[in-house]
Design brief:
Layout lengths: L4 H9 L6 H8 L6 H18 L4 E7 L1 E2 L22 E2 L2 H13 L4 E5 L6 H14 L6 E4 L8 H7 L3 E3 L14 H13 L3 E3 L2 E4 L5 H13 L4 E6 L16 H14 L6 E5 L3 H5 L4 E6 L18 H10 L10 H5 L1
Parallel strand pairs: 1-4, 1-11, 4-5, 5-6, 6-7, 8-9, 9-10
Antiparallel strand pairs: 2-3
Helix pairs in contact: 1-3, 2-8, 3-9, 4-5, 5-6
The protein binds iron/sulfur cluster.
Length: about 325
């Protein structure tokens, strides 16, 4: 593999799309090489240019905590991981409290997530009630199981502006979900007028550069509000824990390559969990979390791995990044 970094940077500045092989070559660099740092700097330049130096903080809370039959190996909600054997769900009042708290804290978008076995009707009912209590301009996003062309429009009617939905790495192998279902759902959401945000996730040390490049290109193909990359967080005691976790530097490198490979119409570039090195490498979207979190073993992630909106602000500030004040431009502009 040979890569001329100056040609790569020129091609990026000219906004000429990169080939699959070029993306693989960029991913194959050592994350600590000067070339990788130049790619990170270029990614940060693009992110700043596209947003006017206004990164975003989106905040998610879970409506329930329950053993999920889809058994994604890396998820603490997966039934097989036995982290949370006892189901629990928020009341509508608690959901409203969580959403309005995150709105007050200045999140640019509020996300509600559920496990794949949460009742769809109930999700719509809670969404309607939460929407009623939020300011009209607040962006409300759902993170829920696969849907069809019949159900997706009901989410829009209930008050969602968009959804987070990802075709995960090794979907159908490390998860109990057919990859085609994920793709069909994304189409159904978009056809229903819901804006889709996505990500290359959850990245582990075993994923090859070819797999990462293919997934980066898949996310680019759906014209999302944002793409990006997030590493797999090791959940202690799970079978997948032995595969390990990539470093923040490698994560930053992948996030930067994802930015270069995305068309400029995709403004957002996310990473998770938040880290200032990621922002310095072109990530312009962090997530804060409240309550249950599929990467945590604590019922209330604010006592564990979760980051608050204020902490995400600090991390962006540490990378000399400005933060948007107001509703998400990623979802509004898409
Ligand atoms: S990632 Fe989602 S679908 Fe998979 S086990 Fe966790 S909650 Fe269920």
């Amino acid at each position: 593999m040979t890569i001329d970094i100056h040609d790569i940077l020129k091609q990026s500045r000219d906004a000429v799309p990169f080939s699959r092989q070029q993306i693989i070559d960029m991913l194959a660099l050592s994350p600590s090489s000067p070339e990788a740092y130049l790619i990170m700097a270029e990614a940060a330049r693009i992110s700043r240019e596209l947003t006017g130096d206004r990164a975003e903080i989106h905040a998610q809370f879970a409506l329930n905590l329950a053993p999920c039959p889809k058994n994604c190996a890396y998820c603490s909600f997966a039934a097989m991981n036995k982290v949370f054997p006892k189901p629990m769900k928020l009341t509508v009042e608690q959901a409203v409290e969580h959403a309005t708290l995150l709105e007050e804290q200045g999140a640019n978008a509020v996300y509600m997530m559920v496990t794949a076995n949460y009742s769809f009707d109930e999700f719509c009912e809670v969404t309607t009630e939460v929407r009623r209590h939020l300011r009209p301009e607040t962006v409300l996003i759902g993170n829920l199981g696969d849907q069809t062309s019949d159900t997706a429009p009901r989410l829009r009617d209930a008050g969602l502006d968009g959804v987070y939905h990802a075709l995960r790495l090794r979907e159908g192998i490390d998860t109990g979900i057919d990859p085609e279902l994920r793709k069909q759902s994304i189409r159904a959401f978009q056809d229903a007028g819901l804006v889709v945000g996505t990500c290359v996730e959850p990245v582990g040390p075993e994923h090859t550069n070819d797999e990462l490049a293919d997934m980066i290109l898949f996310t680019a193909s759906i014209n999302p509000a944002f793409s990006g990359a997030a590493r797999r967080i090791t959940i202690p005691g799970t079978a997948i824990a032995k595969r390990g976790m990539i470093s923040e530097l490698r994560m930053a490198h992948i996030v930067a390559v994802a930015r270069l490979a995305m068309p400029r119409s995709v403004i957002g570039n996310c990473t998770h969990e938040p880290y200032s090195l990621g922002a310095a490498a072109g990530a312009n979207l962090f997530w804060a979390e409240l309550g249950a979190n599929p990467r945590d073993i604590r019922e209330n992630t604010e006592e564990g791995r979760g980051f608050t909106v204020a902490k995400c602000h600090d991390l962006f500030r540490d990378a000399d990044c400005g933060v948007l004040d107001g509703p998400s431009a990623f979802f509004r502009n898409n």
